[in-house]
Design goal:
mainly alpha, 91 residues, 5 helices
């Protein structure tokens, strides 16, 4: 049985983000790292939240959960679009 792309995206996006966090933590600060390229796009959702709500303690306490949830939702939607596209191509 094939796992739908929407579930694959839902699982892959947060796992990829956690991998980037681990790479960013383990990289030496004196040299460049593979994760440096992806660190700015990974935190883009926080900029929009802080622009809408300002610096609120409740938000800053749960930043990692918000980022993982945001990218899980993005992965789900991209996978869902791919599922719909593949279903239309088969017909």
């Amino acid at each position: 049985m094939k796992v739908p792309y929407s579930l694959q995206g839902l699982l892959f996006a947060p796992v990829f983000l956690v991998l980037l966090f681990v790479l960013k933590i383990t990289c030496p600060s004196s040299s460049g790292c593979f994760a440096d390229v992806f660190s700015a796009p990974a935190f883009i959702p926080l900029a929009s939240v802080y622009k809408m709500f300002g610096p609120v303690e409740a938000i800053s306490a749960h930043e990692p959960i918000f980022i993982l949830g945001y990218w899980a939702l993005v992965g789900l939607l991209v996978g869902l679009c791919f599922d719909i596209w593949r279903k239309g191509a088969r017909e």
